């Protein structure tokens, strides 16, 4: 048999998605892969039911249905203050996973370097490999997950084509401050580098933290490729609706990459999601309230159990420090946790470039009942996880 592609030879499957399968196998409360178990907003579901009987069953325009792009441009203007052209500055994709891949393939050539902060969302590693680029990892150092500006500049000196910025950050929950973003922006300008953002948690932020859209920093609009998604904001991760927003000359290429990768996102789902894109401010305020309550419930529960953990500023992930157990392999730890304690988690090592075995990631995008059930099960954490 002929050889399979060398490009994929070093791939493992996604550890995040694998942990969902393992959780299901043991009937664990699955707090590994980040997706809600509560219903999306009723208005969106109602519109979806109507759309079934309307004329949305064939391809939409490849870079996204007009209606969707117009609604997105309006929402974007509302939150960023930036007016964008829905025809020339947006591509609607199959989730932000495709958005990120299309962005990477649009700007990098094989051998180009790309800066990735570590810990990072595991897809970025695969994205760089698939696009032939080489990652340069810059540590976000625990426990505060700050970066050293000199180390970052050292990475920029290697002339990277792009930097990937996940803000609010998965898995560490960091929300980059304006000052930190300004350091990145100044370096991107000095070394003439694109910044590809992953801002899927833009609306999941805990007071007093605030999200700054990278493209709104001085001079950054033209070199920022913003990737976003409806998955987390409207609790519709299975709909796979994401997008790229960038200036017209970049979007022109992203449109072509996207067209040949997937042709387009699902037309009926785009139409139904327009309802969400047109929600007023109250929707986003409610969402923040709901997630703030879940964060409190979950971290208070962990405190009661005396399990050391990070407290996220944004997004919905918590890293638990498991160093007291002395496991050499956090994958083994998570398998045992699913099997013996009945809670699904993601091994922290799948997010870190550095050899880091100290963390496991849990998320709290779940009904309060589900979170309470997970906390109940975690009462036996120490007893069952000790050697
Ligand atoms: N972003 C979510 C996570 O980190 C879901 C990832 C995925 O499976 N697409 O868990």
Task: Characterise the protein shown here.
Helix 1 runs parallel beside helix 11 and helix 6 runs parallel beside helix 7. This protein is an alpha/beta fold and 387 residues long. Strand 5, helix 7 and strand 6 form a beta-alpha-beta unit. The strands form 3 sheets. It has a 7-stranded mixed β-sheet with strand order 2-8-7-6-5-3-4, sandwiched between helices. It is globular. The protein contains 13 helices and 12 strands. Bound molecules: glutamine.
Largest sheet: 7 strands, mixed
Element string (H = helix, E = strand): HEHHEHEHEHEHEEEHHHEHEEEHH
The CATH topology of the largest domain is Aspartate Aminotransferase, domain 2
Going by CATH, what is the homologous superfamily of the largest domain?
Answer: Type I PLP-dependent aspartate aminotransferase-like (Major domain)
What integer is the average pLDDT? Answer: 96
- Uncertain parts: none
| Major beta sheet, strand line-up | 2-8-7-6-5-3-4
Write a compact overview of the structure shown.
This protein is α/β, with parallel strands linked by helices. The protein has helices at residues 15-26, 42-51, 66-80, 95-107, 123-130, 149-156, 178-190, 248-262, 267-277, 281-304, 330-341, 368-378, 381-385, and strands spanning 29-30, 90-94, 113-118, 134-139, 162-166, 194-198, 224-229, 241-245, 317-321, 343-344, 346-347, 359-363.
């Amino acid at each position: 048999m002929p050889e399979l592609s060398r490009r994929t030879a070093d791939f493992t499957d996604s550890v995040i998605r694998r942990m969902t399968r393992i959780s299901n196998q043991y009937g664990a409360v699955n707090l590994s892969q980040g997706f809600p178990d509560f219903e999306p907003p009723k208005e969106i579901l109602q519109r979806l039911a109507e759309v079934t009987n309307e004329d949305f069953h064939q391809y939409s325009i490849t870079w996204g249905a007009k209606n969707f792009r117009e609604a997105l441009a309006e929402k974007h203007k509302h939150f960023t203050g930036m007016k964008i052209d829905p025809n020339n500055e947006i591509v609607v994709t199959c989730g932000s996973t495709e958005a990120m891949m299309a962005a990477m393939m649009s700007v990098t050539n094989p051998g180009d370097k790309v800066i990735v902060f570590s810990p990072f969302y595991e897809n970025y590693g695969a994205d760089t490999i698939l696009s032939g680029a080489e990652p340069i990892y810059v540590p976000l150092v625990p426990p505060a997950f700050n970066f050293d500006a000199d180390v970052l500049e050292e990475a920029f000196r290697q002339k990277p084509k792009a930097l990937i910025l996940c803000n609010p950050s998965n898995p560490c929950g960091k929300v980059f401050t304006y000052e930190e973003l300004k350091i990145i922006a100044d370096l991107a300008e000095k070394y003439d580098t694109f910044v590809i953002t992953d801002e899927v948690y833009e609306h999941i932020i805990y007071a007093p933290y605030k999200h700054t859209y990278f493209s709104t920093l001085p001079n950054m609009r033209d070199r920022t490729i913003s990737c976003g998604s409806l998955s987390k904001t409207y609790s519709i991760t299975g709909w796979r609706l994401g997008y790229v927003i960038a200036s017209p000359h970049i979007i022109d290429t992203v449109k072509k990459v996207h067209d040949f990768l997937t042709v387009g996102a699902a037309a009926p789902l785009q139409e139904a999601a327009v309802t969400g894109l047109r929600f007023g401010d109250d929707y986003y305020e409610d969402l923040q309230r709901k997630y703030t309550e879940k964060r409190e419930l979950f971290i208070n529960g962990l405190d009661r159990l005396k399990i050391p953990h990070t407290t996220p500023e944004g997004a919905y992930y918590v890293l638990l420090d498991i160093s007291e157990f002395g496991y050499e392999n956090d994958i083994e730890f998570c398998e045992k946790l699913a099997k013996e304690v009945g809670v699904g988690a993601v091994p922290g090592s799948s997010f870190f470039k550095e050899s880091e075995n100290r963390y496991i990631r849990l998320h709290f995008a779940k009904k309060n009942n589900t979170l309470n059930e997970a906390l109940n099960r975690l009462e036996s954490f120490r007893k069952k996880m000790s050697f």
